[in-house]
Amino acid sequence: MKKTTKLFFRTAFIIVFSLCFSFTFAQNASISQKESSIFEQIDSAFREKNPEAVSNLLASCRLDKSYYEYEEYVLQKTRALLLSNQLDLIQSMCLAIIDNNLDNQDAVNLYTTVEKSVAKRNARQKALEEQRKAEAEYVAQATQREKESIRKDYNTVENTTSGQTVFVAPVTSKYYSDFTWSVALNIAEIGYRLAKKSSINYGVGVSGDFYYRSEDFSLGTDFFIDTSVLNFTQADISMSEVSLTPGIAFTSLNEDFFFRLGFSQMKTTNEKSFITPTIGVSLKNIASNNVRLGFYADYYLGHLFQEDMKTGFGAGLQSAFLLGKPGNVTLALFINFRESLFVLNDGIDSRSRITIGFGVENNE
Fold this sequence. Notes:
Structural class: alpha+beta
Strand content: 35-45%
Low-confidence stretches: 19-31
Order of helices and strands: HHHHHEEEEEEEEEEEE
Oligomer: single chain
Distance between the termini: 148 Å
Mean pLDDT: 83
Largest sheet: 10 strands, antiparallel, barrel
Shape: rod-shaped
C-alpha cells in the first residue's frame, strides 16, 4: 500500500511539474515573440522616419516590463541618426520618448544638445536665405536697369510668328561708309562783281569735300579753287579764289551740321590779294529723291586787318543732281551758287558766282 501511495504522488508531482514547466515556457516564448515584434515595428518606424508611430508604439507598451528596453532601443537608434546629421528627425524621436517618459534624462539631454545645433543651423540658413534674396533682388534690379537702358538705346521689333520681342540696335548714322567724298570739275563758271568797277567773268575750277564718319562725329574739309579765263566787260578785271574749310559735326546734334574753321584767298586783277580766316557753319546732304542740297555761311575775320573794310561775309548754296551709279560711285551734275560780300568804308564789294560742273561722289 505504501509503495502504491508513493508511486501515485511521484507520478502526480511529475505531471504537475511538467505542466508548470510547459506553461512557463509557453509564456516566455509568447513574451519573446511580442518583444521581437515591437523591435521590428520600431525599426520600421525609423526606416519610414515616422516619429508619431514611435510615440504611439511606446505609449501602447507603457505598462510592459520591457518598456525601458524599447525606450533604450529607440534612444540608441536616435543617437545613430547623428552620423547622418538628421537633426530635425532626432528632435522628433527624442520628443516621442519624452512624451511617454519625462524622466528619461538621456533623451532630454540629447534633445537639448540637438536643439542648439538646430538653432545654429537655422540661423545660418536664414542668413544664407537673406543673402540669396539680396543677391536675387540686386540681380533683378540690375536686369531691370539693363532692360530700361536697352529700351532707350535699342529699337524693339516683335516677331509676328513667335510673338517674341527682339532688341535691334538703332541706326545712329545714315552713312554706311566710314568716308564720304565728292569732287567736281566746274566747266562753266560765271562770276559777277558789283563794285566801283563791275565785271562779268567766265572761269573754270575744281570743288569737292572729304569727310570721315564715325558713330559720334564727322570730320573733314571742303575745298574750292577757281580762276577766270574770260572777261565780258570793258573793265579788264579777273577774279580767282582758293578756299580750304575744315569742319566737324556731332552725331548727337546733327551729323550733317558742321562747324567750320578755315581760310580763303581772293585775288582780283590790279588789287591786293585778300587772305582771311573764315569761321561759320554748313548743312550738307539734304536729300530728296535724286537731288542733294546744302548751304554754308562764313564770317571773314580778315576784315579786322583791313583799314578800308568794315566787315565781310560769305555764303553759298550747293546742289547735286544724281545721274547714275556705275559701280561704287555716283555720277552727278553739280550746280552751286557762291557769294562773298564786303562792306567797305565807301560802299560794298559783292562777288557772286554760279558754277556748273560734273563729278563723282560717294555719300552712302
